[in-house]
Every structure is written in structure tokens, then in C-alpha cells.
Design a protein that fits this description.
Two copies of one chain form a homodimer. With 388 residues, chain A is an alpha/beta fold. Chain A has ten helices and 15 strands. In chain A, strands 14-13-12-11-7-10-9-8-15 form a nine-stranded mixed β-sheet. A six-stranded parallel β-sheet of chain A has the order 3-2-1-4-5-6, sandwiched between helices.
Amino acid sequence: MLPGVGVFGTGSTARMLVPLLQAEGFQVHALWGQSEEEAGGLARELGIPFSTSRSDDVLLHPDVHLVCIYIPPPMTRQIAVNALGIGKNVVCEKAATAVDSFKMVTAARYYPQLLSIVGNTLRFLPAFVAMRRRLLEGYVGEVQVCDVRVCGPSLLDRAYGWTCEELMGGGGLHTVGSTVIDLLSHLLGSRAQRVHGLLRTFLTQSASICGIRRVTSDDFCFFQMLMGEAGPGAGPGAGSGGVCCTVTLNFNMPGAFTQEVMVVGSAGRLVARGTQLYGERHGGGGEELLLGDGGRAGPADPLLPHLRGLGSMVTALRHSFQAHGERRSWAREPVAAAPSFEDGLYVQTVVEAVKRSSRSGEWECVEVMTQEPDPNHNLCEGLQRNKN
Amino acid sequence: MLPGVGVFGTGSTARMLVPLLQAEGFQVHALWGQSEEEAGGLARELGIPFSTSRSDDVLLHPDVHLVCIYIPPPMTRQIAVNALGIGKNVVCEKAATAVDSFKMVTAARYYPQLLSIVGNTLRFLPAFVAMRRRLLEGYVGEVQVCDVRVCGPSLLDRAYGWTCEELMGGGGLHTVGSTVIDLLSHLLGSRAQRVHGLLRTFLTQSASICGIRRVTSDDFCFFQMLMGEAGPGAGPGAGSGGVCCTVTLNFNMPGAFTQEVMVVGSAGRLVARGTQLYGERHGGGGEELLLGDGGRAGPADPLLPHLRGLGSMVTALRHSFQAHGERRSWAREPVAAAPSFEDGLYVQTVVEAVKRSSRSGEWECVEVMTQEPDPNHNLCEGLQRNKN
């Protein structure tokens, strides 16, 4: 039997998620929004019986056993940790900082019987499921290089808000880059050892964001990751094995969102463009379509990959909860592909290393936190940084 | 009246160049090849009356007043400098090192009445001529980011030779990257201040390159250039203005060569794909074709951009020499778009800075040589590098 669901958030993802949950047979009992009006309006629209702006009303709702959290990053940690603390299963978006992610990992470790996954939908997109299988089968041979490009118009909300603020988890790197970092570690089965990056904010003000307000979050981000290298002593240019990933994120582009993920190896290459997968092997007869998107014509919906992946994730959640008869019990296997909170911490660590590299101009090591930093030490660092 | 031409080289470029010269009315009087047989064979094929493997026989040929040099990079400097020294006009390919380029600059400065240009054909490609015009007209607004990608199969010759050797000017960075560096400085009207790069050689041996022989030239190269920045004290991540260029060169790809050059600005973007130019502006009606390639169907010839650019360059040369009636006299204006030897030195300086960055892992400054380095000092550096 499927657990009742409580949803946090009234943004575009929450709006897409609720119908998908309902279509798979989940009952959505409660919706939380930042204001009563926002929550009430969307709840009526989506047929959710209860809405509120007080988080505890959702968390303590007797019919809610699965909590889906799609809210601004700075608020995610608190809701996720509280939900686990009172025995609810959690699917959530990334947090704002590595420290927040670490606290979520600690909570998830403390309640291993509860489901806790980061809702990165790219892993579930059929094109990437197929790409991962082909990689394991050796389609491209030994992987050498990955190249990812995501381009599109501005990610900023019209009004000033968290999307404008680097420290609140706004910007292309945090919003889109983090899903790419997660995807690449999933596809390649290895993690970034060192990163190098460059962030820019080209659009610092707009018609609606003006006066003393300035955008601090990046709208252009380029970074490189060296994955699973051999020796720690080798220079970055040394041919020391290890896969080199380059990621370009540009949100100053007119036109539709485009997303291209390419993996090049010794025997050929695989490319996912939007929701389609293509491949070409050395000595083969040119590029072949390995996975179409059901033959729909016309320009692809920019949100299609996201929506498609979200749908597959919800299906996996249904399988997981249906595997056993009980309302609160779930099977690990159907959601094995989903990123754990540990994966979320890794991703956040890479994001922060890229930001550090953009400031220092140097390659930065990716060192995943193993204990919570002293908050006073943090304060000092913050002050230091402000001084510079 | 057009000057008689002597051509150095029997490779693919020389093979394309001779018919283009002949079509524009230039008489090709002499051809040089590394062996008498090679030179003789190609001369017969292309209808050139004289062939030799001794460079002086071409340089001193009484009917030759323009020398075109398309030979392996380590040999270019000597021929180019000698040709200028005996009063011949010179069109040549890049040299192997910045020191060689500097010597060529010195010679060109010494004989300013002689034509001396680097035959980078991309500047002459109609798509880039149109792109440059659109940039000057403000089509994209303030330029923010350039992104260049060139992909294709291996650049190595089948047999072991200079293409395999980094120090002889082999590799994607030197062969293709240098034309991209030149093109971007031409399009943007500014030069790289700092660069960061990563080079890799994934294919170190092949069926025909084996035993003790190994490829040292790069087959994957990624680099970033910060162009014309404001303050020297600003960190690379600082939003200090300046255009950020990213260049990806991957020659491990099955299939045809692809080349894409994109310039993104505050008002829109321009993209040259192969020989075609597209553009899109914010708030416009989607991407528009700004310059087609004459509507030819089917997959584009991978060498088409190169061939098309070479053709335009030869036409410019004809205009330059026809401007005055005399055989040796030429006008600057028709070839004003062509890279000078000074531009060649700049390009070679960037190439070497990228290589240095790949070894050091750090951002490297681009400092164009102003005097010839002490050869003994050079030797010491070479020894030092071997030791590491």
C-alpha cells in the first residue's frame, strides 16, 4: 500500500510533481507554501485537501508518511532533518551548503530504516539510464572525456529572491551544475578528485532587480573535474589516467534550454541531447539513434528532460513502496539508482570546491566533510572572506 | 600583374592551394618537397613546371616573387626568414615555437615593403567575416563569453612524424587551437591576458606507431582565455569585465570533423557551425540563418571551412597584387584582415602559455616576447624540464 504524501513547495517542480504522484496512485494529503494564500491556491488547483504555511502541520499530519521537499535551498535542511526525526520518509532537493548537507547525512544515517533520497531527476531520465547501461557494456571503450553543456535564458525569478543570491543556493552552478555533477558521478561510477572553475555574473541588475539590490549568483559557469585519478602526486596535465569532465553552463542565451551530455572513449562516443540518446563507434557507419523520445515532432519542451525524469522517479518510488504490503515499508532496489544524502553531500562539496577555485584561480581538491566544522571557525572564515 | 609563385610543401593544404592560386590567375612556377620524387609527382599532377627538394632552388628562382610555405612547423622559420632576406613576399603556416615566431617577426620588421602574412584561413571564411561585421554592428550587445568546439578523428599521420611530436608543433592545440586563438583575437579585437589549459594524449600508440615510439602531442585539449581584462590585480573569478573564451578540441571522435564557434553577449548570440552563420537575439523570433553555404545538401565536407577560407585568402592576395600594376608591389588593404607575423607570435605565445598551464595547473599570463631569449638560458630550461 502506498504511503500518504505531504508536499513542501509551490514552485514549478512541486506543480509538476503532484499530478505525477497522483497518477501513480499516491494520495497527496497536505501541501505547504510560504504563505497561506499561495499554499491554498495551489492546493485547490491540484485537488489537495489540506494546505498550510506551518511546516509542522504537514510533518505531523497523521496520513503523511512520505514528505517531498521542493523549496528554496536554505530551508531544505531543517524540514528534511525534522521529517526524518519524526519518522517520515523523505525525498528532497539539494540543500544550500555542505554544512547543511552534512547535517542531513547525519540524520539519514541515524534513521536508516527511513527512505531518504535527493530528487535529482536526471539519473532517472531514460536517456541516461540507457547511457549508463551502454557505458557498462563498453560501448565507448575506456572513458576519456565527458563534456556537458547546458544553455538557456536566465534562471532568475522575476522578483528578487534566493535565485539571485549565491549564498542562498542561487545560480547556474548550484541549480543545474549540481544535477550534472551528480549525473556524471552516477554515469562514470567515480567521483571528482580535483576541480577547476570559473563563475561569472554577467547580468547583475534588471528592470525588476535594481537599486541597492544586485545579483550575486552566477549566470555563466565553466568547470572541469578530474575524476578518479590514479596518483595524488600527478600534475593535472599529466596523462595519469582519470576521466576529464568539462561542464559549461550559460544562462544568458536567448532561445530554448538545450542540454547535451557527451561521453567520449577509446572506442566511440555517446551523446544525450535533451531526452534522446545517440552513439557512434570508431569504424561504424556514422551516428546512430539509440533511444528516441517517442517520435514527438517539433521543438522539445525545455522542461521535458526534467519532467520525464521526475515521472520515472515517481514510478520508482511506487515500485519501492509496493514491494512490501505495508504502508511505511519500502524496498531499496527500485530506488537504488537515486542519489542518497551522502551523494548530496558529495555534490555540494564539489559545488563549493568549484566556487573556491573560481576565487583562487587554482585547482581545488574535493574533500568530503567527515565531521561538522566548528561554527566559530566558520564565522571567522566568513569574516575573512568579507574582508577580501 | 600577378607575381610568380613558389610553393613549399606537398601536404593536403599545398595540394588544395595550388589549384586555387591557378584559378585566380597566379602562375605557380616551382614546387618544393622533402624528396625529389614527392615534389616531382605532385608537380606533374598539378602542372607545375619545376620541382625540387632543395629550398634555394625555389627561393632563387627568377620568376618567383611570392613564396607560400605549407611545411612541417619546425622547418617554417628558416624558409620564411630566408625568403624575406632575398626579397620575396611570404605567405606561411605557423612556426613550431615562440622563438621561431619571434625570429620571423624580426625579419618581417626588417623588410616592411615585403608582404608577410600567416595563412590562417579561418579569418577569411565568409561566415567569420560576417560574424565580425555583426559583432561590430552590435548584434550580440556587449560580448560576454565565446565558446569554441572542434571535434573529429585523429590528426596523426599514419606513419610516425612531426604530427606525433609535441615539440615539433604536432597536436590539436598547435594545429587547430592556434587558428582558433588567432580567430578569436580577430573577432573580438582583443588579446588573451591569461590562460588556463589542460592537454591530454589519450592515444599514445597505434598499429603503425609502436615499439619505442610514442605520441607526445595532444589529442584532447581544453583551454580558457581571459581576453582584454581591466585590472591586473583582479582574481580570475572576479567579475572584472573581460571576455571569457572556452575552447574544446577533441580528436578522439569517430565521424566527421565538426566546428562550432559561438559568441554570447548581453543582447544575443552568434554561432558559426561549419561554414554557416546563425544568430539569435533576446526577444527575437528564434534562431535565424544569417549566412548559408549556398544551399548545398548532404553532410558538409569536413575540410570545407578550411578550403573555403583558403580560397578567400587567395582572392584577397590577387586583389592585393592587382591594386598596383607592378609585379612586386602589393596593396595592404585587401589583405588587411590577414594575420601578420606579429599576430603569429602572439598566437604561439598563447599556445605555449596553455601548455605551461597544463603542466603547472595554474592560470598563466600571456607575455609576448620582446627580445630574443639567451639560447643558453633556453638550454637550461630544457634540461630542467627533462629532469622533472
